[in-house]
Amino acid sequence: MSNLLDVLLIEDDTIEIMKLNRTISSLNLNHNIIEANNGEEALSILKEGNSLPDIILLDLNMPKINGIEFLKILKSDPSLKYLPTIVLTTSNNRKDLLECYKIGIAGYVLKPLKYDDYVSKIEKLLAYWSVNELIKA
Amino acid sequence: MSQEQIDILQRALQREKAARKASEKILEEKSLQLYNTAQELKDVNQQLEHLLDEKTSQLQGIFENINDAYLVMDLNGNVIKMNDAAIDLFGYDIEKEKINVVALIYNEDYGYAMRSFNELRTKGAFTNYTARVNTRNKGVRWVHINASVVFDKQKKPIAAQGIVRDMTDEKAAEQQLIDSENRLSALILNLESGVLLEDEYRNIVITNTRFCDFFNIPATPEQLIGQNCEHAAEQSKHLFLDPEGFVTRINTLTQNKKQTLSDELALVDGRILERDFIPIYEEGHYKGHLWTYRDVTLHRRFRENIEAEREKYSNIIANMKLGLIEVNNDDEILMVNQSLEEMSGYREAELLGKKGGEILLAKEFKEKMAGENQKRIQGKSNSYEVQARTKNGELRYWLISGAPNYNLNGKVVGSIGIHLDITELKQLELQKENLLQKLEKSNNELQEYAHIVSHDLKSPLRSIEALTSWIKEDNKGKLDEASLKNFSLIEMTLEKMEQLISDILKYSSIGATTDESEEVNLNTLIDDLKQVLYVPENISIDVVNNLPIIKGDKIKFQQVFQNLISNAIKFNDKEKGHIIIDYKDKKSYHQFSVSDNGIGIDKKYYDTIFKIFNSLKQSKDSSGIGLSIVKKIIDLYKGNIWVTSKVNEGTTFFFTIKK
After folding, report:
1. Is A66 helix (H, G, I), strand (E, B) or coil?
2. Would you call A61 and B456 a contact, using CB atoms and an 8 Å cutoff?
3. Residues bearing 4-aspartylphosphate (chain A) (predicted)?
4. Is residue A48 part of a domain?
5. How many domains does chain A have?
6. A61: which chain B residues are within 8 Å (Cβ-Cβ)?
7. What's the predicted TM-score (pTM) here?
8. What are phi and psi for residue B17, nearest 5 degrees?
9. CA B342, B348, B353 angle in degrees (round to 5)?
């Protein structure tokens, strides 16, 4: 029996948000998607919200606080640092990849060009996390 | 017979009788006379004999008692008498055995002996015969013999007598004297110095070859012996730079008769002679004098040369634009040159005796200086950089080249340092470093920028892709054939666009990434590539020569081979495709080739293919950047890339990598 996940998607691109939502509905999954348009917004959601998400999907290239800066803030927070964070990005910059793992991530997924490929990747990603035992707040 | 005849005969007989009577009378008188005379003669003879006996015995006594050997021989050389000295000398005793003098003659002197013997026979004597004889016990001896013939009463030679003096020791002493005289003469003859010994009348006693050479005298030293030197100076004066001075000086010396050493004489031909004058006194009496001349030209020139060299180096040291410091083993300054004064701002007087490192160097370099000085003591030379502080406090960079300084005994007594102010150079270096840092930073920024641009360009592509696929999905069954085809064209274009962006990013990344350098085994690299690349079944890839292990960035080598191999795959139209990878070791570089039997490239494109965005064939998965990437990497490894090809037959790409 797989868990239903609360997924915090931190993404500034509308179409990317649409892609995730459409993917989840087309796959008939009932995971709960929480949207944040940038790092600041995500932080306020995390700090004000009553419950924490199960996983975070994080884009790297964002205005204001970018993905890596957000990750640093997250990982230096005593309670938030346990949140599994999966980077979902276009950047295959080796430097970014190394930096993210250094700070601490649970995964690094490249956004493919083709939507079909995207669906396939997201499906696997969510399937994996939904079978994981997670720290429920 | 007639009476007449008888008468005549009678008368004759008478005469005859009378004559005989007269004769008898005369005979009688004469006999008496003769008797008387004989009687007288007998007396005289007796007297004479007595006298002779006396003399003989006298002589006998003398001969027998003289120290010299005395012997008497008969005319055949048989010894008939010898005294004790003779017995002692020759070792033979005639009372015991016979001995002939011929046996005593030394072989080599035989001729001389025979001549002398002849002389003895014809003239009755010989004197001063000096030759060797064989003795029984004393070996060969030198003897001196005076000999004379002994006559009997009828003046007939009957024997010879000789006095033999053993002069072997004398002879040896004489020989020794001759030898030592010869040695002395040879020595004098061959002396490096010219020697002239004059007696009190200024006649030459001895001189030598060297002397004759010095004064260009066209005679041998022997010929000069006995010549008077009163006017010799006049004859030789033209050889000297100061002829009159030469003559005057000689006159003064010979008049004063005082020992005078090391007079210097300059010759017209440039030589320099040194002269000693040594008067010789024997028991207070002046007996002559000795001149010795030595050629000191070389010596003098050597001294002058050294002086000149010294002058030269002093000038160099004084005028060179390099600072020079000499210090002792305690780093105390012994000498500085003018340039160093200018470099440091100190006067020499302010530096002498001070510790070089203390007064001249910036604080943090003082310790270093001590270490460097230690190297000098160990006899090592080297160069090093320091920061110096000038008198007015300014910090300057100096390059010091230090070497140990040795004394005459080869002991290190300190060091000499040459100092070059490299402040400007150093600043340029620092500037360069700064520039390099800036360049690296801006390169990194550029790299970053390329990533951002590529991300920003790719994002819309992804969005368009998503949107078109949604439209297709949402309108399933509603779209006609043409629209679906157009949608797939949009998708292809998007893919191409994405590939292009990726390749541009790759291209711009070459050279910007840090220089990773590792040993790369190209054989393994190709094997790995074959796994990664999509190789259709009709195409074979063969490596015909073992590939080398080279140093460099593995990713870059991979990019090169990947691009070349995928091109070879991509542009192959044959039923059976062959790709051959070859290698040649070319001493200073590696040469690789990738050949195919594909479509080939027209000669006119040989150059343009390596330029960016110059894909010859439009293809779904070719952005036209591949070969540009390859060329950029080859350039990075200081190599070349070129192509040979025949349209429809195949292409070979060659490239080199510097070792």
Report:
1. coil
2. yes
3. 59
4. yes
5. 1
6. 452, 455-456, 459
7. 0.44
8. -60, -50
9. 135
Considering the domain B66-164 in this protein, what is its CATH number?
3.30.450.20
Cα dist. A75→A51, A83, A84, B586 in Å?
Answer: 18, 9, 10, 55
- Judge whether A24 lies within some domain: yes
In CATH terms, the fold of domain B513-658 is: Heat Shock Protein 90 (3.30.565)
- Interface pTM (ipTM) of the complex? 0.83
Are B174-300 and B513-658 equal in CATH topology? no
Q: Thinking of the domain B174-300, which architecture would CATH place it in?
A: 2-Layer Sandwich (3.30)
Within B546-588, strands assigned E span: 549-552, 577-586
Q: Within an 8 Å CB–CB cutoff, is residue B461 touching chain A?
A: yes
pLDDT digit string, tens, across residues B595-641? 999 888 888 888 778 876 665 555 545 666 788 888 888 988 889 99
Structure token digits, residue B586: 């070319």
> How close B489 gets to chain A, by Cα (Å)?
14
What pLDDT does B513 receive?
Answer: 54
Chain B residue nearest residue A113, CA to CA: B462
CATH number of B321-420: 3.30.450.20
B-interface mutation test, from A59, A87, A90, A118, most B Cβ less than 10 A away: A90
The residue type at B77: G
Q: Which chain A residues are closer than 8 Å to B466 by Cβ?
A: 15, 18-19, 115, 118
Domains of chain B, by residue range, sit at 1-57, 66-164, 174-300, 321-420, 428-501, 513-658
pLDDT per residue as tens digits for the range B495-515: 888 888 887 787 777 765 556
Q: Which residues in chain A are contacts of B458 at CB distance < 8 A?
A: 90, 113
- B266 and B241 in contact (C-beta within 8 Å)? yes
Q: Which domain, by its residues, includes A21?
A: 1-55
Quick check: B605 and B616 in contact, CB under 8 A? yes
B299: part of which helix (H) or strand (E)?
helix B297-319
Q: How far is CA B209 from CA A98, A132, B204, B215, B222, in A?
A: 99, 121, 14, 10, 9
Residue of B nearest to A22 (CA): B470
